[in-house]
Amino acid sequence: MKPANVLLPILISLVLSACGGSSGSDAEPPQPSETNDSSSDSTQEEADSTASEETPEPSEPTAPPKPSEPVVSFSAPSLLSANNAYWFSIFDIDTDGASDIIAPTMEGDQWTGYTYSVTAFSNLDGHGFNRATIADLEYGASWISLFEVPNKNSIGFFIPTGADCSIAYYQSNETDGFDGFASVPSISCGNRYVLGKDLNNDQVIDSISNAGHINIASNDGEFTTSHDLIGLTSGAALAISDLDKDGAGDAVTFDGDRTLAVFMGIGDGSFETANLYLAPDNGCFTSHGGLVVLRDVNGDENIDAVAADSCNIFSFLGNGDGTFSEPLKAISSSPVWSDYEVADINSDGVYDLILAEANQETSVTIYTGKGDGTFEHAAQVDTGAPDAMQVGAADLNNDGLLDVIASHGYHNTIGIALQTDSDSGL
Ligand SMILES: [Ca+2]
Ligand SMILES: [Ca+2]
Ligand SMILES: [Ca+2]
Ligand SMILES: [Ca+2]
């Protein structure tokens, strides 16, 4: 034991001098005394800590705001005629590899009455669109989202019917049309976002709505109300993604009261009681609901939530386990948005924000993502009309660049702005 005790200080000094030698530059002679090294290190640390103590609020140097230079550019808009088309879905409805635009439309007036239908604008590979009515609806639709029906070579969508608060399920038939396929019960009204997802992994599409009702479907098209979202206050908007990567979709709602509610999916169609996150009250004048989009905006492979109350957009960064950090203000301004999409519009690998504002002449704005959950103003996009209600992004002409689509329901048109390659000046 004693020899070891005697050897220990020598061993330590050998190790220390070896470390000192390896950290020094090769050209310099090794510093003989580790004592000098350590004292200079501690001096440096003291100097650092003294410096930070002397400046009580070492706020990061705020760079002066850069002038906003457009990093993306778009061609003059082309317009699709679509009566009262406020909402649309982008979906390859004819499975030819090109994205099509599908919108609920409304014809007529208050004297003759209204007829409601779903209109498809089939993309002719970037050379215009074919317009066709694909479904007749009993009631107007406030939203539409299409999905593939597993194992049936078919496409479906849900429409809240309005009258008895039930939800109609339409499925495509063999002749490119859609027929009413099933009626989905709903406990209360207020369904707007009705998503079709296979929630219990039996290869049959189930429905989940922002009113909090989950209807599990059997293979023969029978829907039963089997679960509710517990802890939902008022779900103004709903989105689903697998936040904790366990294979079960998780549901997120955000409402005009700035509450992000996170429901972790069990995998059998039911969800855990909500975890709630509150965004700060930044003083919206009015409340017109909320919106939530789930994307990985900071590139850490964890899904984040970009959520908005009436005049603020927040990024809640996800931790990958279903929890979220405190919200950041996603953009510095406080827009009166009507919709937004989060997509990588400038192809730099970072998600960007495409914002639609009502009551604006040129109403679509691109904010490029900075990779930390915040976005900065980059360009206005002319989609051919004011008052954009919904925006979307898809590569419509198959050139690798995302294009912008905006519905202008008050102006009976859907505007398309193709992105141009700003480098080549085309
Ligand atoms: Ca999950
Ligand atoms: Ca993330
Ligand atoms: Ca981007
Ligand atoms: Ca394109």
UniProtKB/TrEMBL annotation:
The keyword Endoplasmic reticulum does not apply. Residues 33-42 have a biased composition (Polar residues). The keyword Signal applies. Coiled coil: none annotated. Keywords: Signal. Residues 19-73 are annotated as: Disordered. It comes from the Bacteria. Residues 1-18 form the signal peptide. Residues 58-68 have a biased composition (Pro residues). Gene3D superfamilies: Integrin alpha, N-terminal. This is VCBS repeat-containing protein. It comes from Marinobacter profundi.
